[in-house]
Structure formats: C-alpha cells, structure tokens
Amino acid sequence: MLSRSPGTARRAVLALTAAALACTALTATAEAAEDPLARYHRQHLTWKSCVLGPDDTTGKELAQAGARCADVTVPLDYSHPGGRTITVAVSRIRATDTARRVGPLLLNGGGPGGTSLGDPPWVREAMKDMAARYDVVGVDPRFIGRSTPLDCRWPTGSAWRGAGEDRAGFDRMAAFSKGLADRCRRHAGDALPHATTRNTARDMDVVRAALGERRISYLGYSYGSYLGQVYASMFRGRTDRVVLDGVIDPERYSARLWRGTEPANRHALKGWASWAAARDTAYGLGRTRGEVLATVERVRAAAARTPLRLGEHRLDEHVMPLVALNGLSQHNDAAYGDFAQGVRDMLRASRGERVTPSPWLAGVLEFVLTGADSRYGSAQTAIICGDNAAPRDPEVYWRDVQRARAGDPLFAPVTDNINPCAFWDRPRERPTRIRDDLPALLVNATGDPRTSYDGAQAVRAMWPSSRLVTLKGADQHAVYGVYGSACADAAVNAYLATGRLPARDADCAAHDTH
Fold this sequence. Notes:
Blueprint: H1 10-34, H2 38-41, H3 57-64, E1 68-75, E2 85-93, E3 103-108, H4 120-127, E4 134-140, H5 167-188, H6 197-210, E5 216-221, H7 223-234, E6 239-245, H8 262-277, H9 280-283, H10 289-305, E7 308-310, E8 313-315, H11 320-326, H12 333-350, H13 359-369, H14 374-387, H15 394-405, H16 412-415, E9 441-445, H17 453-462, E10 467-472, H18 486-498, E11 506-509
Parallel strand pairs: 3-4, 3-5, 5-6, 6-9, 9-10, 10-11
Antiparallel strand pairs: 1-2, 2-4, 7-8
Helix pairs in contact: 6-7, 8-10, 10-12
GO molecular function: hydrolase activity
Pfam family, one: Abhydrolase_4
Protein name: Pimeloyl-ACP methyl ester carboxylesterase
C-alpha cells in the first residue's frame, strides 16, 4: 500500500499510514485480548460449488439441492490460536422462507469419523415444510471427509476386532492394536492430540460465528448426540433447538464404547433371525429363529477353526463377529436381506464352496480387511482415544473377555476386547462435564443396538426439561428421517417449527412406517 503513494504526498501519506497502522495494531491487540479467536470468528467464507469432479456423487447431490460449500479455517491447537491452522468443510442450503427464517441447523451424522457434508439434502426432505425456514448446514468435523485429513495409513477401516478363541488369539489382537497405535503416532502424531470432541465442538462454534449467527440449532445422530451434549455444555446460550437421535449416555462414553451393547445386539440378532426364518426358502438359514441362530453359531465356530475364503478375502475368528455387528443397525427388509445374504455366503464358504461375496458383504470385508477406509478408522479411533484414557494393562481386557464369553461368544469378544486406545498417549484434556439440564428433544428406538435405549433414558433423567420420543419395538439405530416413522418425524418437525417441546414424552409404534 505504501509503495502506491504519489511522490509529492509521500511523507504525509507515510505519516498518516503510520498513525493508521498504530491505531490498527492497538485495535487488533485489544481485540485479541478480548477474543483470541477474533480472526477465526470474523473470517470471510468463500462459497463455491460442492462438486469436486465428474465422479463426485455427493457434490452433485448437493448441487442439485441448491447447496454451496466453503472451507472454514480453525486453529489446530486452540491453546495456541496463532499457530498452525486446518480447515473444516461445510455445505449449506439456505432458507427460502426468509420472512420466517429460524437460523442455521448444523448436522452431525455420528461416527465418530462419519462425514456430514452430504447430509443436508436428505435431512431437508425429512424436515418437509420446515426446511424452508432453516439454513441446513452439513459439517465434516476436523480430520474427516473434506476437512483437513488425518490418516494413519492403516490396513483397515476399523480398529475393532474380536478377541478370538484363546489367549494366543487375544495376544494377536493386542499386537494388532499396538501396531495401529504406532502407525498413528508415526504418520499423524502432530494431529493426534487435537483430534477430540472438545475441539470439534470448538470448531462448531467457529462455524457459528463465521456464519454470522448468535445461536445455532443442531441435529446430531449417535456419536453426534454426545457432540451436541459437549457443545451445549461448553458454549451455553449458543444453542436454539437441539435434537439428539440415538442418544449416548455421557457417563458411559469411553474408550471402550462397545461395552454394554451386547444385550441390545443379541436382541437385534434374534429379531433378524425370526425375519430370516420366515424366508427360509430365499436364504436357507433355518426355518425357526433357533435354527437361524444355530447357523450363525456354526459359521462363527467354522471361522475360528479355519479362515473362510470369500473372494479375495479371508474371514477369521477376529473379523466374523465384526461382520455380524455390521449387519445389525437398520430394522428394515433391505438391511435384513443384505445381512441374510451375507450369512448365507459365509455359510457356503464354511462348507468349502467357492464364494463371490454379495455386494453388502464385499463392502464390509473391504472396509475391515483393506486400507480403503484408513482415514475413517484413523479419525474415529483418534477421537475416541483422545477423549478418554483407556486401561493400559492387557490383562484387564483379557479378564473381561473371559468373563463375558460364556454368556455371549459372538459379541462379547468384540465389545470387551482390547483396542488401540490401550497404547495411545494420554488425553490432553479431561472429558467435558455435561451440563445439568437442556431443553432438547431426544429420539431413540427401544431396540437400538448401537446407542442402547437406556442411554436415552439416562440423558432424559439428567435433563428434566428435555423430552424423549421413543420408537417402540424397533431394533433401529437412527430414527428421524431414516426409519420412516411418521409419528417420530412429525414430533421432531413440530419442535423445529415452534421451538416448543412436547408437553410430555411421546411413544411411537414401530409399525408406523409410512
């Protein structure tokens, strides 16, 4: 700027500019003292097309729905906001009913490790008429999706495995877990301390400020329910309407997230087995629920003896239970059919047949047994291990597996098993103390195998001013806009429309699907 000053007035301009710079510096110093994140809160967002290339399906869906995308700059380390920065990718479909606009609705679809950038189109469909009154904003949390990545270069997309049948199998999994932790330390060590829910919540508040909003509404599924609890606790007064679907009990959120889900998963497995038994002519897994469950047990035992050959993959005692867990989260014919076909493929392989796995099973095997989704598993594990310290002694996990195995030989060796958090560096911060109360709308199915119903009940008791919408009789993870309950969807939309919670908790029947 100084170099452009005309020669005759140079000295005067220099004097004025110096004064201006001094004033600016003083102002900036005052702002920094008042708000060390001022430059992030006041950043200008450049909105652009969400389409990254001809094969970008997510970008095309966003574009067709009228979304635009931007990158929000945030500090890597909030204790040193002047240091290295990273970006958080956001998408936005703006409100069209500007006269009755409520504000932004930020989305998190769970994980941790899941992307949410592509969620606004389907969430707006679920919102029906309410969508016009909101800016629906998808956010890829730090290190996930289109945000600055974290990749430990793993040979898998999941850190979780079954412990196996004996101590030798457990020791293999302890070594596997340590290897994954070592890879993260080697390839992403500078980012690991900053991959936490608390920092994701801080990023959310930067997004809020960069959007020019005083408050945000929020819709979080599964892990996103915990993120919502953390945000509302760290940034009181900055939430408007909060919907948490698939609710995590914060007292049970730990580095051993799967623990305690065995009963819900067994219940879901039995429900699926009854469905498959009624379709024995299609899948050949058994004509009664008991026969189908016996088939699953035969497959598990066979994989423990000799890894099953499924196309290019080998399915062993450590991975087979993970496949079963992956088959149980959605309560509908399509998902049940995919799982039944997968079990049939595993059954055929256990008989020595050459099997090309069905598309669903092939996808699960690629996820678990290749590095195709290394970034997902890396970020997921980094957040879980970064939030809570885990027991360091492998004997703790071995004893837990041995105690639980007799009652549940399929799921307990996964849910109680050791994972990389046992070999992780200690978290830098303590877990967030969740606030005493929040007027939020909670949604959960009674048979949810991922975020079990008692978690929603615990948060409902913790937050007296909240309300709980229960989908009864469904083994379903994620309800609003996913399961197809007209009753549950209407309850959420009524709350989004008015900001008023129901007078009392509400129950919806599982058969209310259309």
